[in-house]
Structures are given as C-alpha cells and as structure tokens.
C-alpha cells in the first residue's frame, strides 16, 4: 500500500512540478526558492497517510502549495520584522567578516554572496548595491529607482531576509 501511495504521489508531482514552480515563482520571484518550495510540497504530500481520502489530488496539491506560501510569507515577515535596516551594519547584514580560521573560506563566502545577491529581483539588488556600496540614503535610492523611500526600506528588508536565509544554507 505504501508503494502505491508513493508511486501515485510521484506521478502526480511529476505531472505538476513545472506548474508548481511557476506558481511559486510568480508569487515570490526567485527561481531557487520556487524550486525549493515545490520540493517541499512533494515532501508534504509524501507524509499524507490516507491518500484515498483526497478527492481532488490536484486541488489538494495546490492547497498544500498555497499554505506553504503563507508559511513562507510569515517566516519572511518575522525575519524582516527583526531587521532594522537603518541601523544595521553591512558586514552584520551579510554574515560579518570571516575569522582568521575562516579566512580560507572567505572567497567561497564572497562567491556565494554574489550568487545569492544575483537571485534577488532587480530593484532589490539595486537597492542593496546603492545602500551598501554607494552609501546612498533611502531618499536618494528612491529617486534613482523611482519608488518611495518606504518601498526602498521594504526592498532592503526583503533582500536581507533572503540573503540571511540563503547564506545560512552555506554553513
């Protein structure tokens, strides 16, 4: 019975994997996170013990996906809520400087940070660059990006949350 359940879920997921990734990507705008969330849907579906109780497997699959999006949004808000973008130091925001023992690992961390920053939406990435490299104010960044200063703060909080989450996977 367990083999039938697993085969059924694998077949269902194989049919909907790409659509699930598009579903997530349209809502969160980062392809690596979209793929991770789609994989999490698969894992959660494998935990379902009574597959016969599911009347509409596709509907259930997308219900799990929607709930996962909500959980992800709450986690991002929690992380971003604890970040005071105005007072945070750039080194603290992106993991600090490596210790002497970790200096050999520094180039790997920098490369990973470049990769993680590259995953950000363009305006988030631009806001981070303008804030931390060029030390522009929120108003100056807002003028360049043609958004409000409040939106700049949101972009920075989103970027910091994303970077912390993705950099933590490195360790």
As residue ranges, the low-confidence spans are 86-92
In total, how many domains does the architecture comprise? 2
Number of helices: 8
Number of DSSP E strands: 0
Q: C-alpha Rg, in Å?
A: 20 Å
N- to C-terminal separation? 39 Å
Can you give the helix content as a percent range?
A: over 70%
Do you know the CATH topology of the largest domain?
Rna Polymerase Sigma Factor, Chain: A
Strand content: under 5%
Summed over residues and divided by their number, the pLDDT gives a mean of 80
Main beta sheet: none
User: If classified by CATH, what would the architecture of the largest domain be?
Assistant: Orthogonal Bundle
Q: What structural category characterises the helix and strand content?
A: mainly alpha
Describe the overall structure.
The protein is mainly alpha-helical and 171 residues long. The protein has two domains: 2-81, Orthogonal Bundle (Rna Polymerase Sigma Factor, Chain: A), CATH 1.10.1740; 90-168, Orthogonal Bundle (Arc Repressor Mutant, subunit A). It is built from eight helices and no strands. The protein has helices at residues 2-28, 31-46, 57-81, 90-93, 106-118, 122-133, 138-145, 149-168. The longest helix is centred in the first third of the chain and has 27 residues, at 2-28. The chain is elongated. The chain starts with a helix and ends with a helix. The model is unreliable at 86-92 (pLDDT under 50).
């Amino acid at each position: 019975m367990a083999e039938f359940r697993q085969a059924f879920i694998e077949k269902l997921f194989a049919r909907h994997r790409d659509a699930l990734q598009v579903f997530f990507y349209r809502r969160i705008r980062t392809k690596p996170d979209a793929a991770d969330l789609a994989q999490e849907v698969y894992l959660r579906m494998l935990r379902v013990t009574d597959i016969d109780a599911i009347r509409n497997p596709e509907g259930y699959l997308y219900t799990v996906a929607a709930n996962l999006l909500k959980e992800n949004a709450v986690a991002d808000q929690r992380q971003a809520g604890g970040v005071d973008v105005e007072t945070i130091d750039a080194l603290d925001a992106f993991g600090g400087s490596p210790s002497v023992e970790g200096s050999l690992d520094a180039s790997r961390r920098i490369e990973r940070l470049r990769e993680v920053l590259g995953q950000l939406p363009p305006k988030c990435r631009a806001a981070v660059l303008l804030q931390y490299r060029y030390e522009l104010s929120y108003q100056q960044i807002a003028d360049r990006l043609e958004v409000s200063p409040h939106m700049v703060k949101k972009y920075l909080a989103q970027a910091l949350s994303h970077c912390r989450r993705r950099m933590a996977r490195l360790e």
